[in-house]
Design brief:
The protein is α/β, with parallel strands linked by helices. The protein has one domain: Decaprenyl diphosphate synthase-like (Undecaprenyl pyrophosphate synthetase). The protein has nine helices and six strands; from the N terminus they run ααβααβαβαβααββα. Strands 3-4-2-1-5-6 form a six-stranded parallel β-sheet, sandwiched between helices. α6 links the parallel β3 (117-121) and β4.
Length: 258
């Protein structure tokens, strides 16, 4: 039972326990995607540099992964660094990449021990060699795991992904001596970065902003969208529970009528 998975971390009678009791274990989303927004504003409100908010946000990542693993979610995709984020100040980008390497090296053994598989999407070749090395080390450390998939979007932009997928799909058609008019959705999906993941059921955006920010545009066609004003460093286990409870209240019709 899912509740048994939280026995060591949730105190009976607590708010977390009440929220967990409200979750239907038969309707857990298979794939949750998260736009992790608000780190900079969180830091600014405390008179700190933006990187301070990113560091605190890494604790929220740990909370999301731990909670979703215990809920037996199949996959979580985290929007960590977009293709547009290179426009940020150089010192912030450099700090983010340094922090990414540090967090990976510090946490990957625990990730592997908890049967979580780490993987990435996006143009990883566009990252610095030392960052690529850490990412590959994390992938190799967890490649045999069959629990929650921790999927991190790095140097990722959905438009870029769709263009790359379309090019590969056309090449597939040419290889099988077919005509371009026979291109299908399946051909595109087969070549997306997320081709081995279930469809996104729930998209969460923190910080209250009402936009998608070039994230998983194809994959969220019928995802339920949950926006919370909570800034990402404050988004922890109770907030995850609340998002899932809200998701379970939705009537998912996929364009049809019940």
């Amino acid at each position: 039972m899912i509740s048994d998975n939280f026995a060591q971390v949730i105190k009976p009678g607590s708010r977390d326990a009440e929220l967990l009791a409200a979750i239907d274990p038969e309707r857990i989303p298979r794939h949750i995607a998260v736009i992790m927004d608000g780190n900079g504003r969180w830091a600014k409100a405390r008179g700190k540099a933006r990187i301070f908010g990113h560091r605190e946000g890494s604790e929220s990542v740990k909370a999301i992964i731990d909670t979703c693993a215990r809920l037996e979610v199949d996959a979580v995709t985290l929007y960590a660094f977009s293709t547009e984020n290179w426009k940020r100040p150089k010192e912030e980008v450099s700090g983010l990449m340094t922090m990414l390497k540090q967090v990976l090296r510090r946490e990957i053994k625990a990730v592997a021990k908890n049967n979580i598989r780490f993987q990435t999407i996006g143009n990883i070749d566009g990252l610095a060699p030392d960052v690529q090395k850490e990412l590959e080390y994390a992938r190799q450390m967890t490649r045999e795991n069959n629990g929650l998939i921790m999927n991190v979007a790095l140097n990722y932009g959905s438009r870029d992904e769709i263009v790359r997928a379309a090019i590969l799909a056309v090449k597939d058609i040419e290889r099988r001596n077919d005509v371009i008019d026979n291109l299908t959705e399946a051909d595109i999906e087969r070549n997306l970065d997320t081709n081995r993941l279930p469809e996104v059921d729930l998209l969460i955006r923190t910080s209250g902003e009402l936009r998608i920010s070039n994230f998983l545009l194809w994959q969220i066609a019928y995802a339920e969208i949950y926006v919370t004003p909570t800034l990402f460093p404050d988004f922890r286990r109770p907030e995850i529970f609340e998002a899932i409870i809200d998701y379970q209240k939705r009537d998912r019709r996929y364009g049809g009528v019940k």
